[in-house]
Every structure is written in structure tokens, then in C-alpha cells.
Amino acid sequence: MHSGPKPARDFGRAHRHRFESPFWRKLMVAGVRHIPQPLQRATMPMWAGIFYALVPTARRAAEANLSRVLGDAPPAVVHLRSYRLFINYAQSIANMYAAYLGQQLPVQPTIEGREKLLAAKAQGRGAIIVTGHLGFWSIAPFVMEQTGLSAPTMAMAEEPDARVQSFEQQFRKKWKIIYTTGSPFASLELAAVLRRGELVAMQLDRVTGGHFTSVPFFGREAPFPLGPATLARATRAPLVPVFMVREGQRGFHARTEDPIEVAHTRDRERDLREATARVVAVYESYVRRYPYQWFNFHDFWATPVEPPATANDERVVRADGRP
Fold first, then answer.
1. What is the DSSP secondary structure assignment for residue 207, as one 8-state letter?
2. In the 8-state DSSP scheme, what is residue 113?
3. How large is the angle between the packed helices 75-100 and 56-70, nearest 10 degrees?
4. What are the residues facing 201 on neighbouring strands?
5. What are phi and psi of 237, to 5 degrees?
6. Is 173 exposed, middle or buried (CB count within 10 Å of its CB: 0-12, 13-18, 19+)?
7. Phi and psi (nearest 5°) for 321?
8. Considering the entire predicted model, what is its pTM?
9. Topology (CATH) of 22-320
């Protein structure tokens, strides 16, 4: 699927630091619970600035990624870019916990292209919502539930820290989640959801141990996971790009793009790569438009090591009885 793989430490995961612990998350939840939302928004630059100063490795990774998207700039501009991104990221996390706490959504959502998702679902094959760590993706299930689409089953990687995973689980138990890093049979479970004609949501911008392919992204090949395309090819479910981005102070747009069908030819590798490249092209257009809402705090263009093939990979592909 790619040439010249080389190892990259902790590839595909946001930079882990000493503040990535239940203590700091509890502190954040307490702030969201007790500080009025208007005051939260007004002071977000201060909170973001504190962590901006305390996590220099994550900051430098964000600056390098933004330079690839926006081009080189003087150091002062580079720092202002990443600081702006940190503010947006802090707000996105605050929004997520506000939603989990049952507070009114701190944004006013506008849904565009909802009919595309309904049409894909109406075909009875289910649909795979593909999104990325962009904008307010973390409140997507709340928005979908409120607009009558019903929240999808979410495919997620477990938190690297078991204590953080346990803390987050108290909030996530509201939703249907299948942890792709927790069971070798996760893909089979996701396939079963699709065959019931339901929705599955998957991230397309983190390689966390599975197979991947490298496709063009802002003028240079970058690795993207093959999980969404593999699942779509095995089940015949379409890939439907959906992105939820911030517009202005409280504006929020959930945009659904045209469904992408994965080809089913004799060349499985080409089918998966071409479908992934098509989805990535849509993703790139959103990152280009909303660069300060692109939350990937690692070297996005680094190449991880391809894992060895396993018998379970073949079981997933053959789950529908087709080669």
C-alpha cells in the first residue's frame, strides 16, 4: 500500500503529556459545569494560552502541520496561527463536556446535506460516516440525535491511559461505541451494524495501528487508515463524508457531502486506495478552508510501520461472502 515505511513514535495519536490525566479532565469538567458559558467563551484565550505554553511539543507539531497547509511564515505569525488553533481546540473540548453534562449546546447548528445521509441510509445497506479531528466533531452524536438522524454507532480507539479511558467511559456510555483497538473482532461487529441498515461513524485521519495507505494531501503523500474503505468494500455500504465546523462565535455547520462508493474489482488494493483518496480529497478541502480547526498534534506526514497481515483481516473482507 505504500513504499519506504519508517517508524514514527506514537504516530497517529495526539501528543501525550503530563496533563493528559483524569485529574486535569475532572478539573475541566468542573469548570464547564460551574462557569457560565458566556464567561467560558470570553476567557477561552486565557485557558488555551496556559496549555499553549505548557505543551511545547504539541505546539510545535501543530505549527509544522499548519505551515504545510498555509505555507511558511515569520515566527510571530507561526506562533499566532497555533495559538488560534489552541483556542478553538479548547472551545471544542468545552463544548463536548457541556453536551455530556446535559447543558444546552453552546452553538447554534445548521445542518446542510442531511438528505444525502438519509438517502444513503434508505438504501438498506447502512452508511459509514467518515469524518476527522476537525471543528466540533466531538458533539456530532448530540447534533444528529437532536435533528432526528439518530446517533451512529461510533468506531473509536481506546485511550492509551486506562485511567483516562475509565474516566471518559462515564460520559461515553450514553452512545453506542465499538472500540477498534480493544477487540480483534471489532470490524465484524461494525459490519453487523451496517447490515442492519444503521449508521457507523469512523475517523479517517488517525492511523492507530491498523493498515494504511499513503495518498496526496496538501502536495505530499500522507498516511490514512484503510479501515473505513475496507469496511465499506466488505459490506457495500457507502462512505459519506460529514464535517462539523465552527462559523463565527456561536455558528456551527454540519455539512454532508456526496456518498462515495467503494469499487469491488479484482484489484482489492487499488479499490481501497482509490476510495480512500477520494475521501481524503474532500477532507483536504475542509482543512484548507478551516485550518485553525484542524486538531492533529503530531507530525501528520510521518509514516508509521505497517502491521503484519492477520487472519482476522481476511475474515473481515470475507464477512459478506465475497472475495
1. -
2. S
3. 110
4. 129, 154
5. -80, 145
6. exposed
7. 85, 5
8. 0.87
9. Glycerol-3-phosphate (1)-acyltransferase (3.40.1130)
Dihedral sign, Cα of residue 220, residue 224, residue 230, residue 232: negative
Helix extents (H) in the chain: 22-34, 37-54, 56-70, 75-100, 114-122, 140-146, 162-172, 186-195, 227-235, 268-289, 311-317
* pLDDT surpasses 70 at 100: yes
- pLDDT digit string (tens) for 284-320? 999 999 999 999 999 999 987 666 554 444 344 444 4
Instruction: Show the cell assigned to 53.
Output: 505554553
pLDDT in tens, 219-273: 999 999 999 999 999 999 999 999 999 887 667 888 999 999 999 999 999 999 9
Distance CA 88, CA 53 (A): 16
Do 33 and 100 meet the contact criterion of CB atoms below 8 Å apart?
A: no
Q: What single string gives the DSSP state of each residue in 6-63?
A: ---TTTTSPPP-TT-SHHHHHHHHHHHHHS-HHHHHHHHHHHHHHHHHH-HHHHHHHH
- The pLDDT value recorded for residue 287 is 98
**Backbone dihedral region of 209: left (phi > 0), alpha (psi from -120 to 50 degrees) or beta?**
left
Q: Let me know how long the chain is.
A: 323
The answer on pLDDT for 177 being more than 70 is yes
Pick from 125, 81, 72, 130: which is nearest to 255 by CA? 130
First to last CA, the chain: 18
Three-state SS at 230:
helix
- Cβ atoms of 263 and 248 within 8 Å: the answer is no
DSSP run (H or E) holding 204: none
Residues 6 or more apart whose CB falls under 8 angstroms from that of 106 comprise 37, 40, 41, 94, 95, 98, 250
Phi, psi at 187, each rounded to 5°: -65, -35
Q: Is residue 160 within 8 Å of residue 9, measured between CB atoms?
A: no
